[in-house]
Amino acid sequence: MSELRLADLNRVFMVGRLTKDPELRQTTNGTSVANFTIALNRRYKSATGEWKDEATYVGVVAWQKLAELCKQYLAKGRAVLVEGKLQNRNWETEDGQKRSTIEIRADRIEFLDREGRPSIGAGTPGQESSPEPVHGEEPAFSKSDDDLPF
Amino acid sequence: MTELKIPNLNRVLLAGRLTRDPELRFTPNGTAVCNFSMALNRRFKDQAGNWQDEPTFVNVVAWQSAAENIGKHLHKGSPVLVEGRLESRSWETETGQKRNSLEVRADNVRFLERFESTAAAPGPEEPSESPDI
Fold it and tell me: Does residue B57 belong to the interface with chain A, where contact is any CB pair within 8 Å?
């Protein structure tokens, strides 16, 4: 039997809502990078049998075209499905202490809100034919990360 | 058309090796909890066409029988496949500062190592119940 090697497996799937508008910046060589945080909810039954909600906040980073699309179409409160991998992020606090956390590097982000769709109970019948500029572009954006500066 | 609701989706799949021996302890009411850190490797080609390895370090927590099995059978360097969800953990430093970090709460940990003797083998899979606390 031949030797096996350990699988290169690092995959996450999360659905949540943005806690703030995404921040878009450019690296020194002009690559776009977007950062935002999503709040995930988990509903569970407590020991006393009541339903409880528990929020987890996870940082997401997207690069290049995906980063620009996030800036364009996402805002605080929007729902997204994020697919990607976990990565470490290290930073220093203002007083010079080293900190480290994990965040998601997104490969694919699906925008779950229907853009331009009137919300329930609002809007007038017949407005559905009004232009929806984002329609057709909203489903999913993905890209390969082979050539990222990282 | 029916209204959709947002699914509560929080799923993580990782394979890697333990960076140190796992720490098994018991809560005051006797529940086993095991913390360990694992290193995942990503191999990629850089712009010059050379293969590079990039490690990622992730902290994992497992509970109950899975925690005991991990504490008993795994050690620094052991290969594992972990399935679970991301969870925040808050704690206070010695100086009283509040800290927050993300870790993976495992609900399924598979041992990827072949054990020498079958008698000592913990089995291919260690299912676990996650207690909802």
Answer: yes
